[in-house]
UniProtKB/TrEMBL annotation:
<feature type="binding site">
    <location>
        <position position="351"/>
    </location>
    <ligand>
        <name>CTP</name>
    </ligand>
</feature>
<keyword id="KW-0436">Ligase</keyword>
<keyword id="KW-0288">FMN</keyword>
<keyword id="KW-0456">Lyase</keyword>
<dbReference type="GO" id="GO:0046872">
    <property type="term" value="F:metal ion binding"/>
</dbReference>
<feature type="domain" description="DNA/pantothenate metabolism flavoprotein C-terminal">
    <location>
        <begin position="196"/>
        <end position="408"/>
    </location>
</feature>
<dbReference type="GO" id="GO:0015937">
    <property type="term" value="P:coenzyme A biosynthetic process"/>
</dbReference>
<feature type="binding site">
    <location>
        <position position="355"/>
    </location>
    <ligand>
        <name>CTP</name>
    </ligand>
</feature>
<dbReference type="GO" id="GO:0004633">
    <property type="term" value="F:phosphopantothenoylcysteine decarboxylase activity"/>
</dbReference>
<feature type="domain" description="Flavoprotein">
    <location>
        <begin position="16"/>
        <end position="185"/>
    </location>
</feature>
<feature type="binding site">
    <location>
        <position position="289"/>
    </location>
    <ligand>
        <name>CTP</name>
    </ligand>
</feature>
<dbReference type="GO" id="GO:0015941">
    <property type="term" value="P:pantothenate catabolic process"/>
</dbReference>
<feature type="region of interest" description="Phosphopantothenate--cysteine ligase">
    <location>
        <begin position="201"/>
        <end position="422"/>
    </location>
</feature>
<keyword id="KW-0460">Magnesium</keyword>
<dbReference type="GO" id="GO:0004632">
    <property type="term" value="F:phosphopantothenate--cysteine ligase activity"/>
</dbReference>
<dbReference type="GO" id="GO:0010181">
    <property type="term" value="F:FMN binding"/>
</dbReference>
<comment type="function">
    <text>Catalyzes two sequential steps in the biosynthesis of coenzyme A. In the first step cysteine is conjugated to 4'-phosphopantothenate to form 4-phosphopantothenoylcysteine. In the second step the latter compound is decarboxylated to form 4'-phosphopantotheine.</text>
</comment>
């Protein structure tokens, strides 16, 4: 048995996580979240509701966590579990969180061990909802979610996909790997304020592809990883996130609404639509400057003895400049990205002046540099003349720096209300 300090912390210093599991069919997916938390060095106590045990048994939770499992406030009553578990946690995450669990948490009910734990926890709390679309969209559920968010909890937006039976829609539990990333981000930020709470941010990611014929396209090396890192960190900081993803073969970030596109024209349409009520738009996608002037409806064939005909190109719309000069909402901030291969800062400064955005993230790119990697390095230039260097490191670190700079520039209080009335 592991010795604990007087204040309840583990003597080995491992962060303590409470994994609450409520009674939905997605309960089995929480096993993968538990595995990721345990393997990354967290001490996990699983607190399932009684109904959750109809889907995954107590023995499974105990074996995977290495800790005893209880669902009742009367078990081990001398240790006051309904108080101690929440008091000693560094994070509480509930996955899946059913409509019933969200309602009980929002109204402060304490009729089982999990809801008692939620009431005594003074650490960050994350809810990962899973339910049918109609239940998620019901006004009662929406009010309960708004209440929990107002109190500081992170309620992740559910994913869109296959539900139980033949139903499909919004309400699916996000990928456990992505829930884990949200938890890690929330724990890393500790008790810092969630400075994007109540904000809507739109992020583009990936690389557009411009079709030449049914099998070929003009594209680029962008993987979308930087844009997805921006989405994850924004969710952890409390934002409502719309991610417009172009050809990114990555799992949807938990909590983000994902709109998939292919071409620059499709990306422009999706971004402009989402930007209508956005506080911030971040154009991290690598958007093709040109597209083939003509599309061949059949595959272009190679002909013996003949050189291929030149491919005529035409310009795509400049989405970043369009957003910057025609902002649909007063006070909206626009952030651009500049992928450069030479004269990086000089080209970046010229692009910032030409595009008219508030911040421009300038980085050097190329084969095996930035594109497709887990790390990045950049300089963030501000329209106010500021310059912030971000050293080589994880793309999430660059993302957090971008959001730090954005949060410092967002209107607050009466200033924000005045902007909304313009």
């Amino acid at each position: 048995m592991t010795r604990e300090a007087d204040d309840g912390r583990r003597a080995d210093g491992r962060p303590r996580v409470v994994l609450g599991v409520s009674g939905g069919i997605a309960a089995y997916k929480a096993c993968e979240l538990l595995r990721r938390l345990s393997e990354s060095g967290h001490d996990v106590t699983v607190v399932p509701t009684a109904s959750a045990l109809h889907f995954v048994g107590e023995a499974t939770w105990s074996a995977l966590s290495g800790n005893p499992v209880s669902t009742r406030v009367w078990d081990g009553v001398h240790e006051v579990p309904h108080v101690r578990i929440g008091q000693h946690a560094d994070l509480v995450v509930v996955a899946p969180a059913t409509a019933d669990l969200l309602a009980r948490a929002a109204h402060g009910l304490a009729d089982d061990l999990l809801t008692n734990t939620l009431l005594t926890a003074r650490c960050p709390v994350v809810f990962a909802p899973a339910m049918h679309t109609e239940m998620w969209e019901h006004p009662a559920t929406r009010e309960n979610v708004a209440t929990l968010r107002r109190r500081g909890a992170v309620v992740i937006e559910p994913a869109v996909g296959r539900l139980t039976g033949v139903d499909t829609g919004k309400g699916r539990l996000p990928d456990p790997a992505e829930i884990y990333e949200v938890c890690r981000q929330v724990m890393a930020r500790g008790t810092l304020p969630r400075d994007l709470a109540g904000r809507h941010v739109v992020i583009s990611a990936g690389g557009t592809r411009e079709p030449l014929d049914p099998v070929r396209f003009l594209g680029n090396r962008s993987s979308g990883k930087q844009g997805y890192a921006l989405a994850r960190t924004a969710v952890a900081r409390g934002a409502r996130v719309t991610l417009v993803a172009a050809n990114a073969a990555l799992p949807d970030p938990a909590g983000a609404e994902v709109v998939t596109v292919g071409t620059a024209a499709q990306l422009r349409e999706a971004v402009l639509k989402a930007a209508g009520d956005a506080d911030v738009v971040v154009m991290a996608a690598a958007v093709a400057d040109f597209r083939p002037a003509a599309y061949a409806t059949a595959k272009i064939k190679k002909k013996d003895g003949e050189e291929p005909a030149p491919i005529a190109l035409t310009r795509n719309a400049d989405i970043l400049a369009e957003l910057s000069t025609g902002r649909p909402r007063a006070g909206q901030l626009v952030v651009g990205f500049a992928a450069e291969t030479d004269d990086v800062l000089a080209n970046g400064r010229a692009k910032l002046a030409r595009k008219g955005c508030d911040l421009l993230v300038v980085n050097e790119v190329g084969e095996q540099r930035a594109f497709g990697s887990e790390d990045n390095e950049a300089v963030v230039l501000g329209a106010d003349g500021s310059r912030t260097a971000v050293p080589f490191g994880p793309k999430e670190a660059l993302a957090d720096t971008v959001w730090d700079l954005v949060a410092a520039r967002l209107p607050t209080g009466t200033e924000r209300n005045s902007s909304d009335r313009v």
